[in-house]
Amino acid sequence: MRQHLPRAGAVPRVDRRARARDWSEIQERMLVPLYEAVYERLDVGPATRLLGIGCGSGLALLMAASRGAAVAGVDTCDDRLALARERLLPDDAHARAGTRVVHGSPADAGRPGAPAYTVVTAFEPIGCLTGDAEGLGELLAEAVPLAARGAAVVLSGWGPPERCATASVLRVAGELAERPPGAGGWRPTDRDDLERVAERAGLRPDGSGRVACPFGYADADSAVRGLKSTGLFDPAIAATDRQQVDKELAEALHPYQRPDGTVWMPNVFRYLVARVP
Questions:
Q1: pTM (two decimals)
Q2: Confidence (pLDDT) at 5
């Protein structure tokens, strides 16, 4: 669910600093139940060395660090990484030993002589954009060599569309984005997405789970800002314009708006635990 960009065609101009703030303040917390479920299942704690792929503004890393784990995160969005550093590295006196926030790809998180990672997380859910599974596979190819034998690699994805109210809202992106094939627009979730990625990465599946992650917003405006902060609507914005997308998105959210103005959309996300052979 983190920021996605179309792989081809025009990329809309956005205020990336404001978008990062919207992600951090509105949208990122929606996946907290997923983070908690995974950390509990894997007993993340002081013995854990965790690498977060696509760490964004660092909430999942902060939660792991609060359990005693040594954490490192990588991402390519400077504005989100700045927020992650504010959370995880406020100053030298309070930074936990070993905490790293790196701009780049997983290979950039490796250091000569450093202990191998025991947990690798890819919490950005796949199963929404054309090509997202392939993109995750490329990141895993760099991350797996940094992990210890038997290390857990966690992949996550959207649940079945019939269990995700937000799927009906995301379809707006697909309907508005008049794109060539492979441009990165919305696609229906496939139940075997995670297993295919793990297989291509040479990982051994070791269990999976489903977690309820409802999306709740204070009002419709917050919902529009939060959903747009994911980047999933960028192809639609590029194909039409921002005002059109805002209008269509607000209309799609209407069935989920409560009498008090809040917006509530039940969703289920799935995660797969795989092991490094």
A1: 0.90
A2: 37
